[in-house]
Amino acid sequence: MQGKKVLVADDEPFAQNLLKMLYGALQVECVVVSNGKEALEAYQKSPNFVHVLMDIHMPVMDGYDSAKQIRAHEKAKGLPRCKILGLSGDGDPKTKAACISAGMDDLLVKPLKKEQLSQFL
Predict the structure, then answer these.
(1) Contact 79, 70 (CB under 8 A)
(2) pTM to 2 decimals?
(3) What is the Cα 14 distance to its own chain's centre?
(4) Half-sphere exposure of 120 (CA within 13 A, CB side)
(5) Which residues form a coiled coil (predicted)?
(6) Of 42, 71, 85, 113, which one is least surrounded by beta carbons within 10 A?
């Protein structure tokens, strides 16, 4: 899977390090940011990610708003739709529905396993 790149947005340093390790084991480059605003800015600068993995609860801008703005950016620029995966410790169906409504493609529930990530690469 070398040569692939993902964008990870999570405000927790432990989660950031764990995700870097998991993607590293898959030989995938991982760009990590700490909030939804930084995720939007990183995507606008370089929209060539295999997917965006985004915690839904972050400071500055949450994952829901960031996903909506990424989708608006894609539409405005005529870019292909990038897969956006919400990330939460809450697997409630209402949370998943809120992610889908915000423009995300799926919700992954913490704790994650390498195999869960690899299916989206």
Answers:
(1) no
(2) 0.93
(3) 16
(4) 23
(5) none
(6) 113
Three-state DSSP state, 68:
helix
Residue for token pair 């609860």: 57
Look up tokens 């390090």; give the residue.
Answer: 17
Using CA atoms, how far apart are residues 41 and 5, in angstroms rounded to an integer?
Answer: 16
| 8-state DSSP, 59 | S
Q: Which of 47, 38, 43 is nearest to 9 (CA)?
A: 38
What stretches of 56-103 adopt beta strand conformation (E)?
83-88
Beta bridge partners of 109: 88
Q: For the segment 33-85, what is each residue's pLDDT rounded down to a tens digit?
A: 999 999 999 999 998 999 999 999 999 999 999 999 999 999 999 999 999 99
Rounded CA gap, 24 and 73, in Å? Answer: 28
